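Notebook entry, structure prediction.
Reason for the run: the old model in the group folder had no record of what sequence produced it. Starting over properly, with the input documented here first.
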Amino acid sequence: MSSIFQEIDDALQQERLQEFWRQWRWPLLTAVAVALLALVGRLAWQDYQTQRYSHDSQALWAAQASQDRAQLRRLATAAGPVVRNQARWALAQDPSTPAAEAQQLWQDIIADWRAPELLQMSARLQLGQALLNTSPATAAAALQTVVDQQASLAPLAAELLAIQAENAGQLTAAQTHYAKALTLNPTAEQRVRVQARLDALQQGR
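New structure, fully documented this time:
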């Protein structure tokens, strides 16, 4: 008797599955096809971005090595976001670039939300120095005063000191300033950013 009920139950389940498949097979197949197309498209886009970054990076290196300002200008407008802003930075740092043009390049880096965060912070520092017409030493002294007073902007001032030291190739001093910023009650976002940069420096990156 139990086997009869089991057969009936199995038949009902099979009928329900068949009915479900008849009703929903096309929506389900469409959803699977769309998901596969989206995956393929994403992989293709990532591959394109990787190849573009590699090509742009090589072009940037060659332009800097040969001091090809025309090529740097092209990269500063047409390259991908990372290399584009690196080219802007290279042009802005070039002593032959007029001050007004350098300031505009720094502003372009700051305004580009896809620019690397450290590069944006460096551009803010450089632009601030340019607008205030102060030397790096004077700017550093002013920032150090803010840090010493432990004012509300002390964590940001310490981070800017670290960035300035990095730009000058003073990596040990940069690590000291980043470590100091972590002790000054930074925001959660700044803590993550500063800790990541400190870790990278300590690992030699």
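Summary: The mean pLDDT is 83.
The old model has been moved to the deprecated folder.
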